[in-house]
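Review form for a predicted model. The reviewer records the input and the model, then writes brief findings.
Reviewer: anonymous (R2)
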Amino acid sequence: MSLHETSPHLDVVIVGAGLSGVGAAYRLQTERPGTPYAILEMRERLGGTWDLFRYPGVRSDSDMYTLGYSFKPWSGEKSLADGASILDYIRETATDFGIDEHITYETKVVAADFDTAESRWRLTLEDTRTGETREMTCGFLYSCAGYYDYEQPHAPEFAGAETFAGEVVHPQFWPESLDYAGKKVVVIGSGATAVTLVPSMLEGDDAAAHVTMLQRTPTWISAVPSKDAKAELLKSVLPAGLAHQVIRTKNIAFNTAVYQFCKRRPAAARKLLTGMSAKILGDPQLVADHFTPTYNPWEQRLCAIPSGDLFVSIKKGEASVVTDTIERFVPEGILLTSGETLEADIIVTATGLRLKAFGGIEPHVDGERVELSEQYVWNGAMITGVPNFAICIGYTNASWTLRADLTHRLVTKVLGWMESQGHAAVVARPDADLTPQPLLDLASGYVKRSIGAFPRQGDRRPWQVRQNYMLDSITALRTPLGRSLVPVTGPLTPADESPVAAGVPA
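Model under review:
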């Protein structure tokens, strides 16, 4: 039985028992030992993304030395690990540090209202098995549920779908009993999920007969080694902890350099990526037709394929790629705008995820809903207009955990500062003359579809959500807290929510 189930009030509630929530609990335990806290998880198991997604080949698209925790060395052989290995790693971490004892499962936060008079959150919780609700309170609410909708994917309607004679599945809800052995499969999509599925469905005794990746537009794809040879060498000669830190530092520097290269020299980056793809595929025209996007590298997230597995499958003739648009589904498969029909026994709609702000939590203050789209995010963590509330969002150009861990540490610093100053509640107040910008600076379709419902970032620190871990690691924890965080002693007034003038001392 977790602490939440035996106590009606806790100092901190963490929402989500995935990679981020477990990391947040570790930081809270080690940097503020003795803090009464609980993790509320709507699913029946921990793991978040890595427990939910069960499609063939599901794996990380960031190296595990940076996606993993800095305090828990990754010991696996693969740099891009499979989902089951990552899930085991999260479970082991939670058990090793006693974090699992603080998790309450099948518990969803359906309402959250901050009472400024009492400086506490009033949470309405739903038992996802029975539908029954109950209430609890906490001093600080920390959402580690990410920004994806795990209950409903992006699922566009396709004309004629009801006429298709085969089976249609979405990777987010992969049927355990799906039999694709010896069958023709069409995967709709070109993102990380699609490029993972195609070669994975061609492996083993239950391999598909042929898999076609149908994309509307190409995505930038980069082949990477499935194993990090330098990392393995370092692990063989250095103690585990030291090797992990050296490898982590090496990979952070390399990934940052690649990103900066792509942003600053896009023409050279395009040439490099197309050249690498052509070398594996042996067909420059195929690369020009299907693997050369119109946008520049890292305007959308770069897809990594371990050992070039997708390209290898295409070169062998086991898989193919078609760039076209869908006219409609037909009984035998998909009719394309070009007039071609792709025959299929199974269609996989890897059409992407939907964004959902902070696990669906809609924060209220004194009974009034806060319009998130009108707020700013401070240091990528706290939101203006919402006291004692923080969110965890990762990098779009690097491992999620890098920013997440910085945010965990920042939250514990804020909690310690509040205690030292005698503040029961604080709220972030924006600087004057901020220029609003979207929270996520990506041109991806899933971002464009939903980002308007999220808080905004500004055009300068500490209101800018930078995509640079090296800079953030130096500056984030050194931000003067008193510069932007102001105490809340009663109902929020226009003065509490108005911008801070430049030059106010910390």
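Findings: The longest helix spans residues 240-264.
Further findings: The longest strand covers residues 133-143.
Recommendation: see findings above.
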